[in-house]
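Hello, quick one for you while I still have it in my head. A protein chain has come my way and I'm curious about its shape. I'm sending you its amino acid sequence along with the backbone structure tokens. I'd be grateful if you could look everything over and explain what you see. Here's the protein in full, and shout if anything looks odd to you:
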Amino acid sequence: MTESKIAVVTGGSRGLGRDMAINLAKKGIDVMLSYHSNQSAAKEVVAEIEKNGQKAKALQLDSSNIKGFDDFFNRVSSYLISEYGNPNFDFLINNAGTGLNQPFIETTEAQFEEMLNIHFKGVYFLTQKALPYINDKGSIINISSGLARFSFPGSSAYACMKGAIEVFTRYLAKELGHRRITANVVAPGAIATDFGGGANKDNQEKRQIIANITALGKVGEAQDIGGVVAFLCTKEAQWINGQRIEISGGMLL
């Protein structure tokens, strides 16, 4: 019997995280997902994963609150011990996040701190706390953004944190190589979800602008992202390391 592979996905209750979790299950990977406040949505994802024949568990987590990380991994390890007999897992997908659309000149320190805590500081220290539980030959996948490559007004604070994540990921790949743990970045382009107020889904003017600057001529969908994240958790992807993979349909080439 093949030993189960297990992934932890932060922010897995909706949007891109939901699609990642479901695609991981389709690859035969069991999933633990975190949610911030929407427990009912998280339960729906768990049910969907279980329909695919994989185990799933949803746990509450505020990804910006470093003080809560020890408790989170205590709950993670307790569940894993009860279900699998050991506290370890294979894949960490740092996906949780919120958006901010604010001109640089109007960005407040509080807004900057919020972006810092959830998109960089939180990811940095959540990964540090996770490391003792990640199996050798496992993978860490950090979610960045096309906005770390190209620039749109109003995204400076958010994009700066994603730029930091991309540098951080390369350091992870270098420093964890002795354990054969890979670390990569997935950078979505504009995706039609509720993220950042849902403009990419609902604002037709913005959708047309995005389509006009994208080689494939349309706005991306959540299902365009999850399969790539799942692929990075397969044996076929084990030689991909320290890379940034942009999934944007060819925005601003």
